[in-house]
Amino acid sequence: MSAARDVVDATGAPVVAGTDETAGVANWSLWIGGGLVGLVVVMALVSFAWTPYDPYFVDVTNRFGGPSPTNLLGTDQFGRDVLSRLMVGARTTLFVGIVSVGVAGVVGTPLGILMGMAPAWLHRILLRANDLLLAFPALLLAIMFAAVFGPSTATAMVAIGIGTIPVFARIARSGTVQVMSSEYVLAARSAGRRGVRLAVRHVLPNIASLLLVQASVSFAIAILAEAALSFLQFGTPSPIPSWGLMLFQAQSVLAVNPGLTVWPGVGIAVAVLGFNLLGDGLRDRFDPRLAGHQ
Amino acid sequence: MSLPTIRTRPGDRLSRALRGLVAVAVAGLVLAGCDAGETSEDPTSATEAGSAAPSTSETVATTGTSEPSETGGGDGAVVLGFAADPLNLDFTTTDGAAIPEALLTNVYEGLVMVDQDGEIVPSLATDWTVSDDGLTYTFTLAEGVVFSNGDEFDSEDAKFSIEQVQSDAWTISLKAQMDVVESVEAPSPTELVVTLANPSNSWLFAMTTRIGAMFSTDGVDDLANTPVGTGPYEVSDFVPSERIDFTRRDDYWGDAPAYADVTFRYFSDGNALNSALLSNGIDVIATVQAPEAISQFEGGDYEIIEGSSNGEVILSMNNASPPLDDVRVRQAIRYAIDNEAVRATAWAGYGEMIGTMGAPTDPWFAPERVDDYPTDTAQATALLEDAGATDLTLDFRIPNLPYAVNAATTVQSNLAQVGITADITPVEFPAVWLEDVFTNKDYDMSIIAHVEPRDMGIFADPEYYFQYDSQEYRDLLAQADQGPAEDQAATLQEAGELLSSDAAAEFLFLAPTLIVTDGTVTGLPVNEVSEAFDITVLEPA
């Protein structure tokens, strides 16, 4: 079957899923995605307890040091250890992902359920309003936030989160609309369940898997957005390690030291790929339709 | 308290953010209005907080599409690449260093000018005498000088030009340096007599800057687009944020410069500027913006010229606000900071150590100040303990300029070694930085390059954002300006020493003048001694 599932990709357009996997085929996306995400998470967690060097320690006698036994990934133009900064940068990356997806999920999900359960006229108004927000680029919003509140990790993640709210609202809405027409909801409604109780007990659990998939995809988008913002200096300010900022600082010495761009670039790529694959894998695993089919 | 200067650097955030490691002290930002109290009493008065505002122009450099320029030959052309672009061509009402950089000496001339050694030498005035009381300057003007609009230059024009500065026609705050002039007379077409209200050793130097530019009485109608001066070049085309074309004048009164056509091209991004030279889009990078990447020009035909500038990169400390009101804390910070390391990371190791306010081209420069505060963490820790200021956290509010961010990163690391936490907040430059740090003085430490020549006077103003309040210092500056000229250097050295021992600020280093040529041009001005980028001395190799 080729169900038009409302998983929304980076551009906000619904993605039509391909043919479902047949049972028994290993879910490679899930495992590879999970592995890559795990790598980033472990790096971030370890950085709380230990990094090879102080990521802020400037040692000008050791600038542009290539990879060596003492500095595995070399040193940057301040003589700071790249590996240490990469590890602490993973923290920033994950933190941004968690907070922005959290903001989007916490606000967007109830909004979407409300839309899905609202009377037709209200539904239509809210949906159009949501579409209007969806059309507004999250990056632009984040740049506006940075202009008003000053660039920081916090403004970046809140702005990315706000920018992602309409995506979650749309996913939650379409899931809710489906669930609302299901027999168990009709049964619950005929038994007198209404409003919030209905939403929490019957709708939310049944759209949770959709949301989880979207969260993983949005996580990847958020990571990319934070990296872009930091690269443009609208995000995490120097000298706090952030992969986007590391990339920005490396590009200023690109002509003489191209190697410095590699590691933050790899970090971003791994994290984004990981969360995207994880999202794909989760979708394959949890999609309620797929489950029903099997 | 308007800050008209903000207009001069429109600050397109995106393009600024996109540029690479940029820097170089070029765009002096006059922080007008804020210096209302500043008058001629400020001896070496420099009312500008120069900012090494790099390329904030809106143009995205179009390196790839640029046409290769012709070079060589006595009547050839040369293209120079710059970073900070002028908003218009009128420095009488628009602040910023880019306008005088392009126009002074080349289009406008003053009565006197400053040579590469910092000496004041004749220009439109062939000779001058100063009365014994230091109040009356009598200039003998050159004959046969013609403005680019055909008018003859005579003492009436000179009188008009000086009086214009004092009138409302000029709006930039630098005009205050002309306040000391009491009267101007033009007894004959070649004789000009200027009387000062009180003796001033700095006034004649001020006359070498933009305020000393000579205008034609009939040539000030459209300064923003059509500058009319006596210089060897005139502006033949001006495309804002892109380029200025200069054409050599045939009726110039002095020696004709070597190049018939000179073009200034403006690039918002330091790496784009480098690429323009690599792709032959320009012949000279007049102010290198990406010093880290300069090594790509080493070897081959390229020539890297390093000279001295007037851009003191200063770690400012809020002298009025605890804990930095304690001299021991400020001294501790000076001991803690490794200036060499800061210079290495902020400017790729280029630039000179200064130790106090001033540049090596200033006659009173004292090299021994450099050794006042060697890097000494033990001494710094002892001073902090002595002051009872352990476990400090300081608000380190810096402009979001690459050199400032890079310098701050190193300073933060240095200070961490002595237990000071410097909380870096990069703020948008110029608008937010001017508001927070410069105007509201809501900061503990900051970093900015002060690019005005001979600007020791900024420390004499307790209202200036350093909030350094020393009567002794003010007295020394007044004495230097109004006392006998031969004592000026010694007195200013004393003032510089006082600044250093009071740790009024940490003088990180002097930004270099870095020029790269493709080897086809010679004669480039090595030291940035005046506000002008002198193109009249350029010659084909």
* Cα-based radius of gyration of chain B, to the nearest Å: 23 Å
User: How much strand of chain A?
Assistant: under 5%
Summarize the biggest pleated sheet of chain B. 7 strands, mixed
> Helix-strand pattern of chain A, N to C?
EEHHHHHHHHHH
Give the CA-based shape of chain A.
elongated
So what's the oligomer here? Answer: heterodimer
CATH class of chain A: Mainly Alpha
* Mean pLDDT value of chain B: 82
Task: Give the helix/strand layout.
The complex is a heterodimer of chains A (294) and B (541).
Chain A: E1 7-8, E2 14-15, H1 28-49, H2 82-117, H3 120-134, H4 138-149, H5 153-180, H6 183-190, H7 195-231, H8 243-251, H9 262-286, H10 288-293
Antiparallel strand pairs in A: 1-2
Helix pairs in contact in A: 1-2, 1-9, 2-3, 2-5, 2-7, 3-5, 4-5, 5-7, 7-8, 7-9, 8-9
Chain B: H1 13-18, E1 27-30, E2 48-53, E3 77-82, H2 98-103, E4 112-114, E5 120-122, E6 125-130, E7 136-141, H3 155-166, E8 181-188, E9 191-196, H4 203-206, E10 233-239, E11 243-248, E12 261-266, H5 270-278, E13 284-285, E14 303-307, E15 312-317, H6 327-336, H7 339-347, H8 377-386, E16 393-399, H9 402-416, E17 421-427, H10 431-439, E18 445-450, H11 471-482, H12 488-502, E19 505-510, E20 513-517, E21 521-522, E22 539-540
Parallel strand pairs in B: 3-12, 3-13, 16-17
Antiparallel strand pairs in B: 1-2, 4-5, 6-7, 7-9, 8-9, 10-11, 11-12, 13-20, 14-20, 15-18, 15-19, 21-22
